[in-house]
Amino acid sequence: MASMSMSSCLDKSVRQHYMSLPQGEKCQVTYIWIDGTGEGLRNKTRTLDSEPKTIEDIPEWNFDGSSTYQAEGSNSDMYLIPVCMFRDPFTLDPNKLVLCEVFKYNRLPAETNHRISCNKVMEEVKEHSIWFGMEQEYTLLGVDGHPFNWPSNGYPAPQGPYYCGVGAQNAFGRDIVECHYKACLYAGIKIYGTNAEVMPSQWEFQVGPCEGIEMGDHLWVARFLLYRVCEDFGVVATLDPKPVTGNWNGAGCHTNVSTYKMREEGGLPYIEEAIDRLSKRHDKHIRVYDPHGGQDNMRRLTGQHETSNINDFSAGVANRGASIRIPRQVGQEKKGYFEDRRPAANCDPYCVTKMIATTCLLDLEDVKENQ
What we know:
Elements: H1 12-19, E1 27-34, E2 41-48, E3 61-64, E4 77-87, E5 96-103, H2 115-124, E6 131-141, H3 174-187, E7 191-196, E8 202-211, H4 214-233, E9 236-238, E10 253-258, H5 260-263, H6 268-279, H7 282-288, H8 295-300, E11 315-317, E12 324-326, H9 328-333, E13 338-340, H10 349-361
Parallel strand pairs: 1-5, 11-12
Antiparallel strand pairs: 1-2, 3-4, 4-5, 6-8, 6-9, 6-10, 7-8, 10-13, 12-13
Helix pairs in contact: 2-10, 3-4, 6-10
């Protein structure tokens, strides 16, 4: 059994006494932001005099960027600008979670604030009503980094019985998955579903359909909820695209995409046009589909374990070994959506959705090289 954190072993009944105390008219608001790694999330909480009704009711705040890889100690104040509000499933109503953009001392966006440029593109393509659905795969680990419930020496049985599996011998950590699902529903996340994945201790949840910038907002907060739920259980959720080497599946963040023209009768040609555009910018997409310019995906996109090869672009109906999959139902109905299977589990959804919207919907001759 993988090791669990000492915090998870504390007497939770003692905690519950304090959590049930009344708080009057006051409201706790937890500010959430992306740190300087582009992968990690940070949070801190403050008290407001009353429950905020809209995002405009939540004030700006600041933090020490020198402790989050975002600033030097000599000029470390960073601004938190609230952009999206959710109910708090940990401290319950009327308390809130608020996702924030990060700005530097000079009011310019922090280097890992990709939301602002993503939102600009989404406003440009608003007439297309672009929808996204992202499939977030993750792996449960002990605090020692060993996969949860794997033998301390050796490996579990080979892949085969775990995908959508049931039973103690096949499903490792379902309590965490179900608690996360409920937390997302309570918070107001547009969670679509969940399932056990191919590798033992690997799971997936889906968020969407979301339109435009909403996709990144909801997926980042869903990730925060996952980390917090895992914290309560004393285990770790990793988004590493290849957490275990060898004959084990990696972890991706498959991204489903459609515009209103694709969803209407006779929409298949628009899907095919989008795929053709994607084929011409494969290398640029790979560079933004993980936080390290494609280095993480090199371990995952090998052409094996239900992936395409990172160096080649491919597309096909019901083909999970392709870069782009057209679901069989879409091929039959001649309308719907396509699935980009290249994004890594640790991708920034703002970068991914921005790149897809740019490639598929904007005039490529007018797109700058750095987009």
